[in-house]
Amino acid sequence: MRRCMRTNADGGAATMARMLELVLSLSVLMSMIFSSTAQSCKSYALSSNKTFRACNDLPYLNSYLHWNYDSSSNKLQIAYRHTGITSSRWVAWAINPTSTGMAGSQALVAYQQTDGTMRAYTSPISSYQTSLQEGKLSFDVSDLSATLANNEIIIFATIGLSNTSTTVNHVWQDGAVSGNATQVHATSGANVQSMGTLNLLSGESSSTGGNDRIRKRNIHGVLNAVSWGILMPIGALIARYLKAFKSADPAWFYLHVGCQSIAYIVGVAGWGTGLKLGSESASIQYDAHRTIGIILFCLGTLQVFALLLRPKPDHKYRFYWNIYHHLVGYSVIILSIINIFKGFSILNPDKKWKNAYIGVIAALSFNAVWLEGYTWYLVVKRKRSEIAGKMPHGMNGSNGVNGFGARQRQGV
Ligand SMILES: *[C@@H]1O[C@H](CO)[C@@H](O)[C@H](O)[C@H]1NC(C)=O
Ligand SMILES: *[C@@H]1O[C@H](CO)[C@@H](O)[C@H](O)[C@H]1NC(C)=O
Ligand SMILES: *[C@@H]1O[C@H](CO)[C@@H](O)[C@H](O)[C@H]1NC(C)=O
Q1: Among 164, 173, 316, 390, which has the highest number of CB atoms less than 10 A from its own CB?
Q2: Ligand-binding site membership of 256 (annotated)
Q3: Nearest-5° angle of CA 105, CA 108, CA 109?
Q4: Are residues 263 and 126 in the same domain?
């Protein structure tokens, strides 16, 4: 029996190589998909016939600034684009000529009125208790207009900057509209982070990070979603269901170890980028996301060491090791998925990427469900034929691998 399974192992090795290839190409594909998730202002063509030479992906509130700056006349022509917005919200973009932040900023505000027309106006903000009343700004504004289409508001304006500095402090915001009146915006999370400085000539933005930070966050998201969020569950599925097929006997083990090792290495890289992001973000801490991330790293590392320290299949402690290994493994998968969704709400990428991840998880769960059913069927069938054949020592019943599989299933 054992000999026969060994010969199958050669076929298994080929299968393993093919599966590894599949897993690798899947992760490459996923990282390609996810890295293009990062919506960029550069790939966006404004539907009006205005063209802008420079643009910047603002780091918060799904916002983008497109502009032309003429340094000789000091004229700044802008399109401020705010996506993921409904008709019952206002958006604003402001320059603060004297300070940073909201107080003292000179704002362009836009929203849809109850009759469906867009209102775009200027509002100087003198204090935090503003209700965004219309008023004249400290600089000239012309060609002010706004559009709302496809859940995005775009404010167009031409600004005559009185200051010769090519770096401006800017702030952007959104909030609810009730009737024709703007309501106070949220005072936590991204709504208090949405400010920065912008170099009109180089296009560089800083202070709150800008493009560079968005890129780092996206890399962090991709690495972790692919490793902890996709590869690790796939590795668990391989271990749980491939070993029900006798022909896959040693192959499933190498596949499982290979898949989880790749996931762990990529995952640690992703975890490192997260730590770096956390250390750079002094003003805001995502405590839950951070804590779960650290727990995940510890549990994941524990699993790697547990693999090296595992007792032989027939060792009396192997049963307990198996329980421990499964417990930690499933905890890692559940925590990973929770943390990836926490990450989605922090990073706030385009909705379709969250949906894509939900799709991947749904597909994996669906496979898990039918494979679970099928392995049960195999186990029951095997038991029946064992009983019918009245073999004194079950074909494989006491084999560590399949034996545990069956025991596990009874426990579930
Ligand atoms: C395009 O530009 C022309 C001339 O500047 C203007 O009349 C027209 O309204 C513009 N079209 C759009 C869609 O903005
Ligand atoms: C020009 O900008 C500098 C720095 O941003 C600021 O200190 C100064 O008050 C501004 N001057 C005017 C006239 O707005
Ligand atoms: C909102 O403003 C528009 C345009 O001025 C007006 O037609 C509409 O009646 C106003 N709605 C309310 C509820 O005041």
Answers
A1: 173
A2: yes
A3: 115
A4: no
